[in-house]
Amino acid sequence: MNAIVQLELSDSEFSDIKELVFSTTGITLSDAKRELVKRRFAPRVRELGLPSFKDYVRLVQTDKGDEVNHFCNAITTNLTSFFRENHHFDLLKSEILPAIYQRNLDSERRIRIWSAGCSTGQEAYCLAIILRSAIPGLENWDARILATDLDEKCLSTARQGIYREDAFEKTPSKIVSENFSKVDQLVKGQATPSLQAKLEIRKLITFNKLNLMHSPWPMKGKFDVIFCRNVFIYFNKATQAELVSRYARMQDPGSFLCLGHSEVIQDPEKVGYKLIGKTAYQRV
Ligand SMILES: C[S@@+](CC[C@H](N)C(=O)[O-])C[C@H]1O[C@@H](n2cnc3c(N)ncnc32)[C@H](O)[C@@H]1O
After folding, report:
1. Which of 113, 162, 180, 272 could be cross-linked to 248 through a Cys-Cys bond (beta carbons 3.0 to 4.6 Å apart)?
2. Cβ 154 under 6 angstroms from ligand 1
3. Is 39 annotated in the active site?
4. Domain spans of the chain?
5. Burial of 137 (0-12, 13-18, 19+ CB in 10 A)
6. Whose CA is nearest to atom 24 of ligand 1?
7. Does domain 11-75 have CATH number 3.50.50.60?
């Protein structure tokens, strides 16, 4: 049996990896993330049979194939859950969607929502569930949810919309039974009781790969609601500010932007937003 080679991460390798992570994902790693970097990248370095992190960095820098994707996927944190930070979904149901409904009822009846940094899709499915419950006669509306992430593996889970039953522990059973169907999913070769989002929910969402750092974004139309939650925390202040300006350009006055619980826009008025709730903003 081959012994596992201990990989050392030198100061210069750590610094090169930090730079590469920043230039490919916008994520800023502090010096405290050294062990995390080692833990996340060492399996891939070994899998590729490379002798050091330095060789791995060189490979990613010169990669013409899929290695940059592996690199990005290895460093992102994909933690998410159904109805995480539920106050935003309450606000969506009680204020945001009723306002959009009234505004668009006698015009184009169009609604566009974007879950930016959607991870494995739970946030987008919650948006679809709330959208269906808050807009009467939704089938007569041109309503779409775009959900994007840079992690292709997460997106493939998201597209299937299948989650283990224990992912719904904190979700009211009525919401689960109305919007999900029981399926068996193979997890490590074992049939595992799971639930799949019903077709009418899945049909509302398009999952696409998008690196928020890339420019320009391919979307043309404006968004009535943007959820970009628990993504900003990985970015530095300048990157956060740049993203907020880009979001502002994708939204007309009266539209809404929700960030994660520890993410705030400094001086929202300066960039065209006003605070309307806990980390919830309206475009002015
Ligand atoms: C912690 S998850 C947040 C998921 C969900 N929004 C929530 O609040 O539960 C952060 C997600 O942001 C994605 N992400 C990080 N940097 C990104 C970038 N530059 N472009 C697109 N997505 C990115 C990660 O892949 C990850 O899935």
Report:
1. 272
2. yes
3. no
4. 11-75, 87-162+199-283
5. exposed
6. 76
7. no
